[in-house]
Each structure stands twice: as structure tokens, then as C-alpha cells.
Amino acid sequence: MTSQSGLRPVPPWLYVPAVLGFALIIIPPIALAQRMPWDDFWGSITSEASLQALGLSLRTAGASTIACILIGVPMATIFARSDGMVLRVIRSAVLLPLVLPPVVGGIALLYAFGRKGLIGEHLTVWGIDIAFSTTAVVLAQTFVALPFLVISVEGALRVSGSSYEQVAATLGAGPTRTLLTVTLPLVFPAVLSGVVLAFARAMGEFGATITFAGNSPGVTQTAPLKIYVDEISDPQQALPLALVLVVLALVVVVAVHLRRPGQRRTAAV
After folding, report:
1. Most exposed: 13, 68, 173, 263, by fewest CB within 10 Å?
2. Computed from CA positions of residues 33, 255, 241, 38, in that sequence, does the dihedral angle turn out positive or negative?
3. pLDDT tens-place string over residues 139-154
4. pLDDT for the residue numbered 186
5. Is 152 helix (H, G, I), strand (E, B) or coil?
6. By the 8 A CB rule, do 103 and 207 touch?
7. Of 27, 151, 24, 20, which Cα lies nearest the Cα of 79?
8. Which ranges of the sequence are coiled-coil (predicted)?
9. For the chain, what is the radius of gyration of the CA atoms?
10. Segment 88-107, tens digit of pLDDT
């Protein structure tokens, strides 16, 4: 039996743990809003330090999202259209930042791109110092956000199959033309979702950033880092900017999941 909407009914008892899970997610933001110093809210989020940190977060998250697109979409396409043990191992390594503690990722980046790092020591010879710079912020954000885009695009490509690409090939389209005119337009909703999720993850990045890029105001202090500093010195001062990030994250999540699941599947196919 299915409902008139086409959705299958679920056992009633499932609603109990589902409601508990929803409460676990929604109560902390409500508590945050309840403790908010509303009298000083506008002045706090429009202060020079807050605007500087938020602006840096937006710029670096935008740059890292572009980097994720440029390297993530090709990776996802290869993962979805190829197979083999070596490729599976590479794919697992690409998804490592999803389960790796961010601070550990920051330490790894430091030993890779720091002045005495595996690659950084060679870059230093050319006068290029990445660690503790704005570039380090972008690199750290790209490191943690890339898997989100790869997973979204790869999953859509696997679901969509390759029949349309085979038809394009029989009509004389080359691999590049097929990719640009058939494959990517076919999974564009998934690409867009992956882009939005990668941007949101980059905006919220903290652990790898503070370890690899430091916490210099105007250079590497993003909004999450400023919230951390304010929470230590004056917890009330940290609340307004924290609420701004909560609202931004909520907007991102709603934007990704606004369409019904059936519509997303149809768009992907």
C-alpha cells in the first residue's frame, strides 16, 4: 500500500527516535537565539572586526569552492566512469578528509606546505610561503570541502548511467564534447548541490585553518576563528556572529533540499 502522494507509509514507532533526533539538532540553535544579546546584536555583527572576519570567510570560501569545482568535477567523473583496485584506493584517499579530524588535517597540510614541509621547502626557495597566509586558508578549506562535491557529482553520474553518452558517441561527439554537452548538463542539479555544500563546509572550517593558517586578523582570521577567540574572552560577544553563521548554514541546507526527492532524481536522470 502506498499513500496518494506515492510515498510508502512507515511504522508509527519510527517517529519517536526521529523526533528525538530532530530535537537534538534544533534545540542548540534555539538555545543560542535565546541567550542572544539582542540589544547589541546589530552593533556586534557590523563591527569592523566582525565584518573583516566574515568578509574573509566569504572570499576564501568562494575561492576554495572554485578550486573544488575545477578539480572535483573531473575527479568525480573519473571515479564514476572507471573502475579498478587502484582507483578505489585513490577514491578512498580523496574521501579521507570526511573522517579525518580537522586539526590532524591542518597538521598534515603544515608538514606538506609549511616552510620546512615536503613541498613547502621547495616553494620557499622560489619565495613562496603558503603557511599562515590567506592562501593557506583557501587550501585548508579546499582540503575539507572537496569530498562533498566529489560525492555529490559521482553519485549522480552513477545513477544517470552512460546511455546518453553512448548515444552521443555514436553520433560522432568526442569525449570532451560529450562531457560538456551531455554529461555535465545531465547532472547539473547534483553539481549545484555539491557546490553549495562545499561552500558551506568551507565557510564553517575551523580546525585545519587555525592549525595551518593561524589566526591573524585580516589575514587568516575567518568568522569561525573570531567566534572561537570571542568565546574565550567574552562568550556573549561570540553569539551574534555565531547566529549569522547558523542562519547562513540553514539557508544553504534549505537551498539544497528545497526540491522534493522525486524532482531531484528526475533532474539527475
Report:
1. 13
2. negative
3. 999 999 999 999 999 9
4. 86
5. helix
6. yes
7. 151
8. none
9. 22
10. 898 889 999 999 999 999 99
Identity at 258, one-letter amino acid code: L
- Among all chains, which residue has been given the C-alpha cell 522525486? 262
Identity of the amino acid at 239? L
CA distance 140 to 60: 10
Q: What is the pLDDT of residue 265?
A: 44
C-alpha cell at 27: 534545540
CA distances from 39 to 36, 43, 182 (A): 9, 8, 54
**Nearest Cα to Cα of residue 269 among 163, 147, 149, 148:** 163
Residue 182's nearest CA partner among 196, 171, 192, 193 is: 171
Cell of 203: 565557510
What confidence tier does 9 reach under pLDDT thresholds 50, 70, 90? confident
Helix or strand holding residue 35 (H, E): none
155 DSSP assignment:
H
- Assigned C-alpha cell, 217: 586578523
Q: 165 pLDDT band (50/70/90 cuts)?
A: confident
Which residues make Cβ contacts (< 8 Å) with residue 80, sequence separation at least 6? 153, 154, 157, 158
Q: In whole angstroms, what is the distance from residue 60 CA to residue 133 CA?
A: 11
- Please give the torsion angle defined by the CA atoms of residues 42, 43, 44 and 45, in that order, rounded to the nearest 10 degrees: 50
Distance (Å, rounded) from C-alpha 89 to C-alpha 239? 42
Place of cell 589566526: 215
Average pLDDT value for the chain: 87
